[in-house]
Amino acid sequence: MRDVAIIGVGLTQFGENWDQSIRDLFAEAALKAMESAKIEKVDSLYVGSMSSGLYAYQEHLGSLMADYVGQIGVPAVRIESACSSGGQAVRMGFLDVASGMHDIVLVGGVEKMWDVEDGTFVLATAADQEYEVYNGVTFPGLYAMMARVYMERYGLTREELAQVPIKNHKHGVNNPYAQFPFEIDLKAVLSSSMVADPLRLLDCSPITDGAACVILCPLERAKEFTDKFVKIRAVGSASGPIAFHDHKDLTRLDAVKLAGERAYKMAGLKPEDIDFVEVHDCFSIAEILVAEELGFFDYGTAGKAIAEGQATYGGKIVINPSGGLKAKGHPVGATGVAQIVEAYLQLTGQAGKRQVSNARFGMTQNMGGSGGSCVVHILEAM
Q1: Residues 187 and 335 in one domain
Q2: 330 is catalytic
Q3: Half-sphere CA count of 242, side-chain side, radius 13 A
Q4: Residue 41 lies in a domain
């Protein structure tokens, strides 16, 4: 397999983008990425999108987006894996280049979530319809159960749990693309509306419109296009049970652990080698569970460690320097690609006020459902 580099990135503003369609969002991010890489033509195209048919009433995104960004004729497909669709699209683009099939590959993720009346229904399609959704359980309820079991088992307090979104909003202040670039405090979190006990509104990632794109090429050719590139050092992916009741332990995410182990093995690295990580904090408890599964903290300790400042600048590792899904936003099909964009910016020294000093290795973790799918990337500064 060939080594693979990222040579260009593009991102839209995350939020309520009422004046842009799903194709407009993708085109904006794609053209920015192509301009960043100084290219006009790609060899293939991948689009990550969880549910464009229900959100935007538009399927067949591969053909649509290739046409709309002036790349008609190239092989182009949509990748779907719930909220990990974007990360899985990057994985497919990586394999395309690494295999030698194509040299210049455009990978994007997009979701237009604000154009439907019932976005909760659409998100719930990523859960088990027969055993969960039919009985009235959606993702806030599932993650609330994880939080309740974790809190009772390990003694995590409601105040400590609140430090996850507080920290991520503090990071998000310095992200110009973030949906909510402002700080929140403990009082705001604990007084926000109850969604599913113990999770409140400010524990939950938002509904978001947005798109993100990256350009991949063989590492040996990267300098032909730019002096700002990073290497995709490793990719790990895994699936887990889609139904929550099939989890062996409600405080564990087996697919995350497996994906992380596979990425570490491929990279020849350990958790202590990673300088920062973008994790899938769809709910406050998710960041805690993922941080443990990826080996950054021992089981039962991540919540308190985050509350003590060990997951921010000056701590053990910087988690979600972008602001994470909570502050940056969560356009589900675009999230995994946006995480890669953040890692690229950090590793090329272009992250501005949120820059992680002397970052050499960055990680991204993107998952679907309540741990039904997960993909982990490790990127290296060059």
Answers
A1: yes
A2: yes
A3: 13
A4: yes
Those residues with Cβ within 8 angstroms of residue 308's Cβ, 6 or more apart along the chain or in another chain: none
Tokens found for residue 273: 């080698």
123 assigned to some structural domain = no
Cα 362-368-373 angle, rounded to 5 deg: 80
Which tokens sit at 258?
């497996």
CB 316 within 8 A of CB 356: no
- Distance in angstroms (rounded) separating the CA atoms of residues 110 and 127: 20
Out of 169, 280, 330, 377, pick the active-site residue. Answer: 330
Predicted local distance difference test score (pLDDT) of residue 117: 82
Rounded Cα gap, residues 288 and 299, in angstroms = 9
Residues 64 and 84 in one domain: yes
Rounded CA Rg of the chain: 19
pLDDT digits over 183-195, tens only? Answer: 999 999 999 999 9
Q: Note whether 298 and 317 are same-domain residues.
A: yes
CATH (domain of 351): 3.40.47.10
> What span, in angstroms and rounded, lies between the C-alpha atoms of 285 and 164?
8
- Let me know whether 358 and 217 are in one domain: no
Catalytic residue from among 83, 204, 213, 374: 83
Are 111 and 224 within 8 A, CB to CB?
A: no
Structure-derived torsion over alpha carbons of residues 95, 209, 359, 371, reported in degrees to the nearest 10: -60
171 is catalytic: no
Residue 125 lies in a domain: no
DSSP for 167-192 reads HHHHHHTT-TT-SS-S---HHHHHHS
| pTM for the structure as a whole | 0.98
Residues 6 or more apart whose CB falls under 8 angstroms from that of 50 comprise 80, 81, 82, 83, 85, 111, 126, 332, 333, 368
- Dist CA 44 CA 28 (whole Å): 18
Whether residues 197 and 328 fall in one domain: yes
**Pair 152, 164 in one domain:** yes
Do residues 284 and 139 share a domain?
yes
Chunked mean pLDDT (size 10), the chain, 382 residues = 97 98 98 98 98 96 98 98 98 98 98 91 93 93 97 98 98 98 98 98 98 98 97 98 93 98 98 98 98 98 98 98 98 98 98 97 97 98 98
Provide the domain limits for residue 51.
Answer: 4-118+207-230
Pair 124, 138: CB distance under 8 Å = yes
